[in-house]
Structures are given as C-alpha cells and as structure tokens.
Amino acid sequence: MPKLSAFHKDENIVIDFEIGESVKTILDKTTLRVRSACRGLGACGVCKIKIISGNVDNHSLAESLNLTEEEMKDNIRLACQVFPKDDLKVEVINRAAKSQWKSSTFANRNTIYKELCSDTHELKIKEPLGVAVDLGTTNISIVLFSLKSGQILAERLIGNPQSKYGDDVITRLVASMESKERAIELQEMIIEIISQGLMDISRREVVSLKSIVKVDIVGNTTMLSLLSNKNQDKLLDPKTWDKYVDVLVEDDSKWKREWGVNENCKITQIKPVAGFIGSDLLAGIISTGLFNEKKPSLLVDFGTNSEIALWTGKEMIVSSAAGGPAFEGAGFKFGMPAISGAIYSAKYTNKNKWKFKILENSKIAGICGSGLIDIIANLLDRGILTKKGNFNLKEQKWAVPIDELQMSISKQDIDIIQRAKAAIVTGISILCKEAGIKMDSLNKVYIGGAFGLYLNIDNAKKIGLIPNIKNSKIKIIGNSALNGTIDIMKYYEAKEDVNKISKNIKVVNMSKKSSFDLIYLENLYLQPVQELENE
Question: Does 137 lie in the same domain as 21?
Fold first, then answer.
C-alpha cells in the first residue's frame, strides 16, 4: 500500500492509505490532523499543507479560489483536495488542536436496507443530524450523519474512561455497588465523554449540535446499566443472565443539556436482550442481515464481553463469552489496544527474525490482540511452542524475545490468549450443538469488533480461535454494532426487524451448561477447533 509521510515541527507520522482517500481523510486517522471548517468540501481554505515530494494532480477549482498565486507556486495545497495515488510527503501548515478523540473509519457501509427514515425531518431543521453511539467496554465510538441523505459526516473513537475501575464488566459492576457516589461517578464518566466527543465533532467539522435531533445508543447490558445507573445488582446475579433486565434511563433531559443537542432530540437506548446479551449484538445482527441467510450462519462480536449469534436458518440462538480484555491487548506485559504504534501483524522469517506491521507505521509501542495471535501461531509453526502452550526449549521456559527493543511474549501472555479463545470457541461449540449444526456446515462466519479488523484468518484458525472452515466463508466486518445502529436510526424496515428479532430469540446461559468446563478444557489447546459430536 502507498504511504503518506507528514510532519509538523517536531512531530512526524507515516501511515498507509487506500487510493481514493484525500490527505485530510488520511490525516484524520492520526494524531497529526489538519484544521478544517467546511467538512472537507474545499470551501474554507483552512486545511493547508505543503507538498514536499511525490506526484499529485493539478490544483482544483476550490484551491484556485482559496489559495494565492504565491502559495500555489510554493506547493501549498488544501488537504481535502489532494487525492494521492502513490507515496507522498507533506508538511502540515495549519494543524488542528490535539484531541483524545481519534477519527477512524469503523467499517464499510453495505446496508441491506433501501428507504431512508424521515420521521425527524418534520422539525424543520435545515439539515437534521443523527448520532449513533456504541458503548463498548474498552472503546466508545460515535458517528454523526445526515438524516436526510444518510451521509456520514464524522466518526470518533476513544478509550472508555471507566477502565480505571477495571477492564471487565464484572469488576465495574462491583465498583458501582460500593457506594451511590461511585455509581454516579461511573455514570458521569460516560455522559461527560460523549459530551466531549460531540464537542470535538462540532469544533472540527463545523456543525451545530442543535441540529442533532436523534441519538441512538447501543452497548452491552452492563455498559447501558452503568449509563442509566440502574439494576447493576441484577446483572451480578447469574439467575438473570439469560433474562431481560431493564437498564434504560427514564429521564434523559440532563443528557440533552450536557450534550448540547436540540431540545426536541429523541434519545433512544436500544433495549438489550438479556443480562449479558446487549443491544450491540442486536445491532450487529441487523448490520449483517444474519437473519436473512438461507443456511446456518454465525456472528461473533469480539470484545471484552464477546457476544455470539447463531442463525440456524429458522431460529436465532445467542450467548456471550467472558473472554476478558485479551483481544483488546490488555493484561499482557507489552500489550496495547489497536492504536498508533501497535504491532498488528507479525511473521517469523526463515532468517529467524520477526517482520512486523505497525499501525500508522509509527515507532513500536506494544502489541495489540491480532499481533499476539500472529506471534503465537508463528511460534507454533516453528516448534518453539507446543499445542499445550508451553515453550519447547529450556532456555525459552519463561519468555521469547520478539524484537530488538527487548519486547517478549511470556508463558503468562500465552495463557491469557488460551483462556480467552477457549471461552469464545466453547460458546460457539455449545450453540452449534444446541442447534444440531456442525461447524463445518456454517455458510458464513461474520467477525465483528475492532480486534477482527486486523485479524489473520489463517493464524486465528491455526490456534483454534474461530471455526476451521474455508476462508471464503469468513467475513471481517469491523464495528457491526455501530453500523447496525445507523441502520436502525435511518430505516423503518430495520426498526421493525430489530423488534422482531428481540422478541424471537433464544438465549443460552453458558453458566448453566454442565458440559461447558469439559469443552472449555479441550479448547485450551492451541490447535484447530475440533468438532463436537451432536447428541
């Protein structure tokens, strides 16, 4: 892939890009963003850069109107008007203020729905806007779009600030039960971070928050409970894990005030299915059109609380698997989320050296989940690691160095991955057994979540993370929850479908399955998934 090199004073970045993206769009994915006041239309003339090297097209009409002759002679361009086809080096002239929020393309928009929903247009706002929010345990994502055209206007991503009280949902639920003050603090963290995200979009994309007339929120049931500060105690009771728990807020007037949206804005928390089956999974089912498949198909939404949906062709069966934050790079000595500096792909060469791919081509800062999967699979291939997860050589009893910076992967790191992947595959196996379906008969397997975006399918199958089926049947879909939320907001048909699905869904509580422990132990091995015999 071609690379964009950019610098501003002492800051330098290098990032791969897809041909067809503007320099502004590419920079928006990094920490070195350029100022803009017209949503990339070329009307404001603010997003100035200087071409240092590389070939680009001639100045556009918008640039001719907004740049002086001297600027054009000096290779000054507007970042939104430059669409590089090869490697390019630029200097950022007008740099945007730094922000914790990161712009990110969350997934391809391939909706199965056709007609736009227009119920909010009657408010007589020139351009009514909608906001979709995905409350993840590790990350929070926001998308702003036009309710008239459906066009995506802005996308933002940030780490969940509640992580200071634990990486997993159970720890946070326990923290919220310690005192009323702690529960309110956890609630306020989310309200405030969403407010900051909307303000970041307002400043950088030059939109009025008063034009936001609709906000839909999805998330796992715990995140929705912590947001509403409601029924956290019920989610700690295993008896409720396969039952609906009311975690929806009754009065959202405070949210409207703090977020600065239109006073008539309709805020909707999409109802979760059960204790640990959230509305994020429902949205993912909508996004993939899983329920329209004619043959058995599977959706796995990887996250701290991974959720699984199996469509038999006639029935939707769902469950969750507590894999923990391993897939987000947490819990490892050198682990980190899939952000700038993370090793997301690794290969052990014949010269006994590691070849890495690093997000944004930055200096190596750590290893994210997909990178760890690659490293483990490569160690298996070279015989350095056994399928039990043990190192094969005495001198490698505790850790294996993986780069010149003395980073390493330890037995403890491998154990974390083994436990996480065993929980996922055990959930898949039990659902398939429940439905009388063999995994090799699955027509499609959808892989959702940020973790899946960089996943090497062959390596994932090799260690037993996903079903051992043909690669052509496996589809990486990114943030399916956010995509589905947008569909639910925009399309009447999607709203109807989510209501039908939520009423006709079978929840399987893994904690009540006597076979879980035995199957889990089998799936700890680092090997392709073994098929269970159906009874």
Answer: no
Which residues, at least 6 apart from 500, have a Cβ–Cβ distance to it below 8 Å? Answer: none
- pTM value? 0.83
- The domain in which residue 222 lies consists of 121-280
pLDDT tens, position by position, 415-466: 999 999 999 999 999 999 999 999 989 999 999 887 888 899 999 999 999 9
- The reply to whether 416 falls in a domain is no
- Distance between CA 416 and CA 356 in Å, rounded? 22
User: Strand, helix or coil at 231?
Assistant: coil
Among 511, 316, 313, 331, residue whose Cα is nearest residue 426: 511
Structure tokens at 192: 């405030």
By C-alpha distance, which of 136, 510, 497, 464 is closest to 316?
Answer: 497
172 and 270 fall within a common domain: yes
Is 150 found in the same domain as 72? no
* 8 A C-beta contact, residue 479 and residue 450: yes
Structurally, the chain folds into a number of domains equal to 2
131 and 213 within one domain:
yes
Q: Supply the CATH number for residue 275's domain.
A: 3.30.420.480
Domain co-membership, 268 together with 131: yes
Q: Would you say residue 262 lies in a domain?
A: yes
**What's the rounded Cα separation, in Å, for the pair 233 and 343?**
39
User: What's the pLDDT score for residue 523?
Assistant: 94
pLDDT averaged over 10-residue windows placed end to end, the chain, 535 residues: 91 88 89 80 89 94 92 95 96 84 61 59 72 91 88 87 86 94 96 94 87 95 96 91 91 94 94 92 94 93 89 93 77 81 87 83 83 94 92 72 78 92 94 92 91 90 95 92 90 88 90 89 94 60
Strand 152-159 versus strand 139-146 pairing type: antiparallel
Residue 535: predicted pLDDT: 45
Going by C-beta distance under 8 Å and a sequence separation of 6 or more, which residues neighbour residue 173? 222, 225, 226, 232, 235, 236
Could you tell me the CATH number of the domain that includes residue 60?
A: 3.10.20.30
